[in-house]
């Protein structure tokens, strides 16, 4: 039986790191996969060559990523990027920074899509927003409310076991020097403790699609004078890349029982 999965993200490229393998696996199994992004990512860091019309560029990159994963539909919810740190910039003409949007109003927009798609599963973020980006935290809040409004049967929160992530980053650091803005302390405080993980998905057969999704976001792999973290990731040799990115993890607050390997298991 096929199901519909709606994967909700803050910015273009967020789908690639934590969820691309699961999205590709669902699509390959015949399920309908939809990606919704809250913002266009126009305030993302990048090099000078990409800075002009960055939001439009990033949405185009998202389309290429989605094609690599077999995604059926991509939707921009219409909000503007809030930026990661510092004072929130003024709203651009005709839009509002996502973090300023009313949670109920944004949830209604997403709930409308969930109803249109008759979604069985909404994929969102954990309560910390992963590493704490304010737009990611907002995705968690809006996603939870939208699923309640639409009556979506299952919400799974994309995350990483905190302990495993820290070990993996330290291993990769043996071979690569991370960019100067890379803060290991962020990852030691973020994401989800292993004991709270409810779903562990083996995506090693989707690893080529996942890497293609990462490569599609060229603007987020570049910065003047230095590499971005995504740029480092896509250059990791294949055996190591498969080990680091060959599994994806989720938390379903309503799940009980052992860790599952199928995000659709138990759905009608």
From TrEMBL:
GO MF annotation list: hydrolase activity, acting on carbon-nitrogen (but not peptide) bonds, in linear amides
Sorted UniProt keywords: Zinc
A GO BP entry: glycoside metabolic process
Domain of life: Bacteria
Segments passing through the bilayer: none
Protein name (record): LmbE family N-acetylglucosaminyl deacetylase
Organism, as annotated: Rudaeicoccus suwonensis
